[in-house]
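Hypothesis: this fold can be encoded by more than one sequence.
Test: take the structure tokens below, design a sequence, compare later.
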């Protein structure tokens, strides 16, 4: 992170209690519904796109439908708790 900041990039560490690194891109999107982490990521992507002159079309509401049963997500977490 220090390298990013010294290079002029905006960097920040955000920790989410009870979340593993795979929750962010795998389990949470598969659960569907609203998710604070996904919404935060999409808002950063929108902000970055607008700053670059693009028409950022990142919408966290697109991932509302549950993709797999919860029992399978819990089983996957027990098998690979990363």
């Amino acid at each position: 992170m220090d390298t990013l900041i010294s290079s002029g990039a905006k960097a920040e560490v955000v920790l989410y209690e009870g979340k593993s690194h795979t929750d962010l891109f795998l389990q949470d999107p598969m659960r569907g519904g609203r998710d604070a982490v996904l919404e935060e990521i999409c808002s950063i992507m929108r902000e970055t796109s607008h700053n670059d002159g693009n028409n950022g079309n990142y919408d966290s509401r697109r991932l509302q439908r549950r993709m797999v049963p919860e029992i399978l997500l819990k089983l996957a977490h027990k098998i690979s708790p990363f």
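The mean pLDDT is 76. The chain has four helices and no strands.
Hypothesis status: open.
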